[in-house]
Design goal:
Length: about 300
């Protein structure tokens, strides 16, 4: 498999943009699809990512004002956070932000998402502006979004959160998976869980991975971080399952001698590399959120 992990065009009319969030390279990326009928930006980065995204589009020769959709995978601040700022800076009144119906209210009134983002990201989470109701389009599972000849399929993908959507473009065999598959390290090709507390649900994650396996994709785009290209790309789903099973094994071994705090410490150690997508100041906290998230999500799946 081939990896693309920087700002640029990786396939005709398909671009990846490193948002340079928290002044870091390879932390948060977005996908951009150029189309004569209007471009699509998949996810929007952090609330303060909009300038980097728009400047990158200009440098890549893409007119930001031709953006037709900002298609969001889920409500988290590092994905939906930049949507209002982007919409406000575009000189276009017909751009819509697409999101699962569960989270439309959080785009219109983002205080809860911002508070949640602050808990995890601390001062790296800047204030999120509301999106006007008229600019929000709610998306249903299996819905097809047409832009001329191009179609984008909406794949409901719960697990990381209950509102998570993935997007599939059949003509390009490309799947934008947001956070559902995990986070990807483009250097080592390892995949790590994104099992954040309180929303992670292990059973739903596994069901979603099974569904994604049935989709005919050959390019997988992560938000954290990069693009995986090639006929063997589906192997990434196996790597993702294996990384979750490693945590499952730790939990099961502990069941005989339950000591929750010790167990959380052990899971945190196993997740050390998974926190490298976060600024170093919040990695310890991110590990704690993921360890508690995995435990909660695991017990949900066995209860
Ligand atoms: Zn997320």
């Amino acid at each position: 498999m081939e990896i693309f992990d920087r700002t640029g065009e990786f396939e005709r009319d398909l671009f990846y943009v490193d948002t340079l969030a928290h002044n870091m390279k390879r932390s948060i990326g977005v996908l951009v699809c150029r189309n004569k009928m209007g471009n699509i930006i998949f996810d929007s980065g952090m609330p303060n990512s909009s300038n980097e995204i728009l400047n990158s589009l200009l440098k890549l020769g893409i007119d930001p004002d031709s953006t037709r959709f900002i298609l969001l995978t889920h409500r988290h601040i590092d994905h939906a956070g930049g949507s209002a700022a982007l919409l406000n800076k575009l000189h276009s009144s017909h751009t819509q932000a697409g999101i699962h119906p569960f989270s439309a209210k959080h785009l219109a009134e983002p205080s809860k998402v911002f508070e949640g983002g602050k808990e995890l990201f601390g001062s790296f989470a800047t204030r999120m502006s509301p999106v006007q109701n008229s600019s929000i389009r709610t998306l249903q599972d299996n819905e097809e979004i047409y832009l001329g000849q191009e179609v984008v399929e909406v794949i409901y993908s719960p697990g990381h959160t209950s509102d998570h959507i993935s997007y599939f473009i059949p003509s390009k065999k490309i799947l934008y998976c947001g956070d559902i598959v995990g986070s990807f390290n483009p250097k080592t090709h390892k995949v790590y869980p994104t099992c954040l507390y309180p929303s992670f649900d292990y059973q739903k994650y596994k069901t979603t991975i099974k569904r994604l396996r049935s989709i005919n994709f050959e390019t997988l785009v992560f938000s954290h971080f990069g693009v995986v290209i090639g006929k063997d790309t589906k192997q990434i789903l196996d790597y993702s399952l294996e990384s979750h099973q490693t945590l499952e094994k730790i939990v099961k071994e502990h069941n005989a001698k339950p000591n929750k705090e010790k167990l959380i410490q052990e899971i945190k150690v196993a997740l050390k590399e998974a926190t490298e997508i976060f600024p170093s100041a919040v990695r310890e906290r991110a590990a704690e959120y993921m360890a508690r998230g995995f435990l909660k999500g695991f017990y949900l799946s066995v209860s």
